[in-house]
Amino acid sequence: MSFKIASSPHGHSQHSTSSMMRWVCYALVPGVLIQSYFFGFGVWFQIILAVTTALIAESACIIARDRPAMSALRDNTALVTAILLAISIPPLAPWWIIVIGTLFAIVVVKHVYGGMGQNLFNPAMAGYVLLLVSFPVQMTNWLPPSTIGEHSLTLWQTLHTILFEYTPAGYSVEQLRAGIDGVTMATPLDAIKTGLTQGFTLTEVYAKPQFSFLAGAGWQWVNLGFLIGGLLLIQQRIISWHIPVGLIAGLCVPAFFAYLFAPDLMAGPVVHALSGATMLGAFFIATDPVSAATSNRGRVIFGVLIGLLVFIIRSWGGYPDGVAFAVLLANMCVPIIDRYTRPTVYGHGERK
Amino acid sequence: MNEYKELTWQGLWDNNPALVQLLGLCPLLAVTASVTNALGLGLATLFVLIGSNVTVSLVRSFVPQEIRIPVFVMVIATFVTVIQLLMNAYVFELYQSLGIFIPLIVTNCAIIGRAEAYASKNPWQKAAFDGLMMGVGFALVLMLLGAIREIIGNGTLFDGAELLLGDWAAQLRIELFTVDYPLLLAILPPGAFIGMGFIIALKNRIDAIKAERAEKKTVTRARVTAQQ
Description:
Chain A is mostly helical. Chain A is 61% helix and 0% strand. In chain B, 71% of the residues lie in helices and 2% in strands. Chain B has ten helices and two strands; from the N terminus they run αααααααβαβαα. In chain B, helix 4 (68-90) packs across helix 6. The longest helix of chain B is centred in the last third of the chain and has 39 residues, at 189-227. Chain B: This is Ion-translocating oxidoreductase complex subunit E.
């Protein structure tokens, strides 16, 4: 929320918005590198497309609103929104997916609400939800990781697929996802969800090729990459530990107990922590300084709430992963969390 | 005649039930996925609004103050039942696609709001005209939102108009563009909220520009006087 309700003492960190956002970009590098190793060059094209769209949209909005353009562009917030959205979507999604998502994130979610520092919702996640709800097919077309996939695309083939939805040889993304047996390979979380609804036990699901020793093949390393980046952010004091720890605890503690009760029906805490967007969400998305809670106690509650919601959506919801929905729902609760976790001023009565 | 002009302006713009009073949002947001549905519900609401306004105005001197709300609700419910049976008989497919939102017109706050705020205090001619204008204002917003959502989400206009207006209306269907993957969000409930937000913002913007112009005029005049 806005800075007004943050209570004193107002310790000043030595980071400007611009340098904070630059650090977030640096911290994303290990995760993105691992992601591009397992899922192809697509993520780089998506980032380029997203950043270009975001900068154009941001400039257009700033000019339309009569604000100084250069200082707004230099604060790098649009850049971070664009990159986060670009790495959340499937790397081979058609180009218009990321363009629509970024435009919505910047123009509607950010600037309609008043621009930098005023948005109620996390722009990247609101854009993601718009895309997921509107284009479910394109938004779930994840290729299997290159280590187990049948197809790996060259740079040119990737670009061609993003631009025209087919490889130069005429394969659609749907066909590329198929394994050697012609069966489409789902993402690990999707495989868990569909496996359980079809009556398989998790032991049987884990025997599928897209699972490796900790969680999903490829996905576990991507998540570890974002974990490393996130720890760097905490070490640099760009983010505080409260939200990531709260989120991972909110997700893994219930997952642990559910796992104890029904180990063949509920995914364990490690699988939850290293699947889907858990680490990206915990360290990079939920920690958005604008749309998250402001006090430290509030941040813990905010993080736990997101973690719990992710656990509920993954276990019983309609979607395999729920980080984006959970973040948006928790964003809605931020005003009330801030209201009830406001620290008491020294000498002004007891906390009620 | 002046009061009628005022009523027109109030109903269509200044005090529009959907854009300013923000009443009746539930059906407004739920059924506006296409222009046809919006028009159907808009006409049904218009009919109920005129009927209830006239009746409430006619019986206003016989209704004890303490129980006026239940009486109004029963008057409204009567008209809703009438329109529901009529739609069931003559436009059955539209009746099915509007579903629960036809009986729910009873709970549309715009209608009881007009009964309480205007019809119960004014003669029936004025009450009827007020119902007409409020109903038209509501229906226009419904159709505008329906058109926006149908264009974005489906690429068409007046799709399925024959369900409401008879077979000739099948020609009204306009195919603006076809896309392989429509923006489903516009058809889904969030699209209604977002679209409604933009329409209200547009109205407020127009009002702000008008107020600005009015202000400018006075300022210019003042400056001229000062120079003389």
